[in-house]
Amino acid sequence: MNSVAEIQGAVRAAKRVRVRGGGSKPALSLPNCQDDVQTLDLSTLKGVIDYQPDEYTFTARAGTRVADIAALLVEEGQYLPFDPPLAERGATLGGTVAAGLSGAGRYRYGGIRDFLIGIRFVDGRGQEIRGGGTVVKNAAGFDFPKLFVGSLGRLGILTELTFKVFPQPAAFATVAAEFEGLSDLLDALDAVTRSAIDLHAVDFAPAEEGWTLWVRIGGLPTVLQERAQALQSVLSAGVGRPGRLSLHREQEEESLWKTARSMRWLAEGLGLVRVPLTPQRVPAVEETLSGSNAAARRYSVGGNLLWLGWPDESAPERGEQDTPQDLHTLLLDLDLQGIQLIGRARRGKTQGNGAGEENPLLGRPLQNAFLRRIAVALDPERKFESW
Which part of the chain is the FAD-binding PCMH-type domain (predicted)? Predict the structure, then answer.
């Protein structure tokens, strides 16, 4: 699809529609088993329409790659502070919004919904609708931009997006702390998040021996060293012994967070599931996952988000344990919701062959009566309802 007019025509002619962008989240754009679903490729609907560095805003087509936007912004010393993930894998602006994805930088500045200020989209009747605006101080009309964050393509097809951006800090530094157990790490997490230090990102993950906590700060190089020392002082009480703290700067530091954004820590054969939670629920999640040797995980945004690597349904046979169906049940038991981004998962079983329904939504069902009413208004024939 190279134009909005083509998308409008396709929507009007099709019985059911699904959208594919850069392919970085294939679980959300898998071909449906139903023959009446038409997949629209928006990867060619790309390009920057307007960029105003002095106003800290840009407008681009939905198929524009996040990596291309990052390269444009860095020339003006600006960036998207919510740290959009999967950019190195080809993520697009439209797909990132539709999936509601924010990275580690969300801890300091808020998520993608806080930076999206305007959209254009095609509804179920094939009409193009505008919501929000192209300037930061805009309060006119219905707040469609926030509704479309995490909508998973069920409200309409995004064609154009406007974001606000921020100046990028002159430098970053990251303190990594190693802990023998999860309890020690959570105590340190509580101490550092309650401190007066301005934190940009806080992630943690299990390591070969114990746990590792990464805390990122940013600012002027002249004061960054002093702030890093203050951060190390806060963390030193929990690490148990010297040598378990390390300071990372410049390229080494950027590589740590690039690995996190691109999910390069995800081993081959593992799918990727996004699970919102709170730090208080981490111990229960870890207790449940303790019997799964195949699971890989990284907690982000100070423990408010879990990136979970889980054996992929399409990977070679792994036996009875650690199947995607197990993950659906596990999340149900924990009363959590998960969205499969990479890989394939089945939930439930059908009679006959015992295969399950392919569905990227795992765990507790999404329940939002208001959103359902909006969906009916925008898409009365339910052309976009894929799951």
Answer: 1-168
- Residue 235 near residue 177, CB atoms below 8 Å: yes
- Rounded Cα gap, residues 336 and 329, in angstroms: 10
Rounded to 5 degrees, what are φ and ψ at 37?
-95, 125
Which of 260, 300, 275 has the alpha carbon at shortest distance from 364?
A: 275
Burial of 284 (0-12, 13-18, 19+ CB in 10 A): middle
Length of the chain: 387
- pTM for the whole structure: 0.90
Over residues 66-77, the mean pLDDT reads: 97
Residue pointed to by tokens 């990102």: 201
| pLDDT given for residue 315 in this prediction | 55
**What residues contact residue 275 under an 8 Å CB cut-off, 6+ apart?**
285, 305, 306, 307, 308, 331, 336, 337, 338, 363
Q: What is the mean pLDDT of the chain?
A: 87
Looking up tokens 């890093």 gives: 228
Residues 215 and 200 sit within 8 Å (Cβ to Cβ): no
Tell me: pLDDT of 114 over 50. yes
What is the 8-class DSSP label of residue 178? E
Residues 324, 316: Cα–Cα separation, whole Å = 13
Which residue in 254, 248, 296 sits closest to 275, CA to CA?
296
Residues β-bridged to residue 116? 163
Helix H or strand E encompassing 174 = strand 171-179
- The Cα 249–Cα 253 span in angstroms is 5
* Domains of the chain, start order: 4-167 (3.30.465.10), 171-262 (3.30.70.2190), 270-365 (3.30.70)
Judged against a pLDDT cut of 80, whether residue 386 lies above it is answered with no
